[in-house]
């Protein structure tokens, strides 16, 4: 089929309707095939559905490109891309990290996130940044903090801001900085006393530029914690994972704005060094290259079976990943377009691809579909998912659809046939045997990926039951993963602290 919608929102509805029709037909065919015990028809129904879903996805992507092309043609002379000149005259569409932008585009099309965001805005109203800051911290005038205002003026000119900057400080020895939601003609940067006293002018310039970057890219549009709070009954764990992943990617965009202001990569390295170590004296001999090399060590550790799996759900990238991503930007043709004093060594495409690889280190790896153990892995996932779905007493259509999406048609058909003749205890026994067989074969990241996907399945019917969580715990124990990981996934989805 071909999509005909003229807008992204209409296209999303058209796509969802077509996908639902295909899913409904698959479920009807599956029921008929199971009733008759026809294995071939079960496999055929699954294959047909996956082929239709793939075709719809291709047509969907194609139509998005066509709509975007039409929109770009209309606005090309004014504001190409999704970022406008509302706050600045620099090209934000060139400066932004692709991973940041791509998530924003996805969120704009996600009806659940948009509906939740609308409720957040309705329930919370407009946050009065200046009123709050005047009550809770000290406003730093030009007389009180001349150097800071000099930094602010430099960043304003470099980033071609259309608003003024107002600085505030609060008492805290921790190294913290943030930017509050801006007003039309003013933005607010708040610094801890610790960072203000112990960071050099160049280092503070990077910090201030970074905070301004969050405003330029409108990162306040998606307040992650508030969205997850408001959407705890309707958003699935996958939404939490995507929101946190976007949060990490947004830091990469903001770092680029910070470097534009600072224009000294070594000073940026010192900034991250201080933030990571807390050491601001000369007791340690800072070497930028040695600090960057920590990325190599971290990359090895992230593939180690003993690292903390909860780190994969952090809201910020690890510092060595950030400095490595910024090193690539510092050498890129993209940066050269903003800083005429340098010559770009790598193309924008090469830079973005490598940064994407780096950022993927904070996501569990995908299972290798073509591995020799793939069928066992998929059988384990199906049985684990089925036991989770069955825990609350009802296996509904949404859960069957979710199961069909994570395994191959052949495995799905086989599982649908064989579970009819298995008791729950026999399924548990098989899961125990499969986890034992795969224990040495699976990496920690593959095990985390299995548990992450099964957690998503547990939410397919709209809620997570305590009995389903208990099954997830047991699966984690069998895979030798601490049950804290399950808590982290579920808590991130529902924002339970």
Automatic annotation (TrEMBL):
Major localization listed first in the record, in broad terms: membrane
Residue span, Co-chaperone DjlA N-terminal domain: 387-483
Cofactor(s) listed in the protein's UniProt record: Zn(2+)
Cell compartment(s), UniProt: Cell membrane
Entry membrane topology: Multi-pass membrane protein
Cross-referenced InterPro entries: DjlA_N, HtpX_protease, Peptidase_M48, TerB-like
GO cellular component: plasma membrane
This protein's UniProt keywords: Cell membrane, Hydrolase, Membrane, Metal-binding, Metalloprotease, Protease, Transmembrane, Transmembrane helix, Zinc
A Pfam family that the UniProt record links to this protein: TerB
Domain Peptidase M48: 146-220, 243-327
Gene Ontology BP terms: proteolysis
Protein name (Swiss-Prot/TrEMBL): M48 family metalloprotease
Organism expressing this protein natively: Maribacter polysiphoniae
């Amino acid at each position: 089929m071909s999509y005909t919608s003229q807008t992204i929102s209409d296209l999303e509805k058209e796509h969802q309707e077509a996908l639902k029709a295909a899913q409904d037909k698959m479920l009807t065919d599956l029921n008929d095939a199971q009733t008759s015990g026809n294995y071939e028809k079960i496999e055929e129904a699954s294959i047909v559905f996956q082929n239709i879903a793939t075709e719809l996805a291709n047509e969907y992507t194609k139509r998005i490109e066509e709509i975007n092309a039409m929109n770009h043609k209309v606005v090309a002379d004014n504001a190409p891309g999704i970022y406008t000149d509302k706050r600045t005259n620099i090209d934000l569409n060139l400066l932004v990290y692709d991973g940041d932008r791509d998530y924003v585009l996805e969120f704009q099309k996600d009806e659940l996130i948009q509906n939740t965001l609308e409720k957040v805005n309705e329930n919370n109203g407009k946050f009065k940044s200046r009123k709050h800051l005047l009550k809770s911290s000290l406003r730093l005038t030009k007389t009180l903090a001349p150097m800071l205002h000099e930094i602010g003026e430099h960043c304003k000119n470099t980033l071609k801001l259309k608003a003024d900057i107002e600085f505030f400080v609060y008492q805290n020895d921790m190294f913290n900085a943030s930017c509050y939601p801006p007003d039309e003609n003013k933005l607010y940067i708040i610094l801890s006393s610790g960072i203000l006293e112990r960071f050099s002018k160049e280092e503070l310039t990077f910090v201030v530029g970074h905070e301004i970057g969050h405003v330029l890219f409108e990162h306040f549009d998606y307040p992650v914690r508030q969205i997850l709070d408001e959407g705890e009954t309707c958003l699935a764990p996958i939404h939490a994972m995507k929101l946190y992943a976007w949060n990490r990617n947004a830091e990469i965009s903001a770092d680029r704005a910070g470097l534009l202001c600072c224009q000294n990569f070594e000073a940026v390295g010192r900034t991250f060094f201080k933030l990571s170590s807390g050491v601001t004296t000369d007791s340690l001999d800072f070497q930028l290259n040695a600090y960057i090399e920590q990325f190599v060590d971290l990359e090895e550790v992230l593939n180690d079976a003993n690292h903390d799996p909860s780190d994969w759900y952090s809201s910020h990238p690890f510092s060595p990943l950030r400095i490595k991503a910024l090193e690539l930007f510092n050498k890129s043709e993209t940066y050269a377009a903003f800083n005429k004093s340098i010559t770009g060594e790598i193309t924008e495409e090469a830079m973005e691809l490598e940064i994407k690889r780096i950022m993927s280190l904070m996501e569990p790896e995908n299972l290798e579909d073509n591995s020799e153990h793939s069928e066992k892995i998929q059988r384990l996932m199906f049985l684990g998912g089925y036991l989770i779905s069955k825990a609350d007493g009802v296996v509904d259509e949404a859960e069957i659809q979710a199961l069909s999406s994570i395994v191959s048609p052949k495995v799905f058909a086989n599982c649908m046939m064989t579970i009819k003749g298995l008791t729950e205890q026999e399924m548990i026994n098989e899961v125990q045997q499969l986890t034992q067989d795969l224990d040495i074969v699976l990496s920690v990241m593959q095990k985390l990926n299995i548990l992450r996907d099964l957690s998503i399945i547990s939410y397919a019917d709209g809620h997570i039951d305590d009995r389903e969580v208990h099954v997830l715990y047991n699966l984690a124990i069998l895979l030798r993963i601490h049950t804290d990981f399950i808590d982290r996934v579920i808590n991130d989805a529902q924002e339970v602290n």
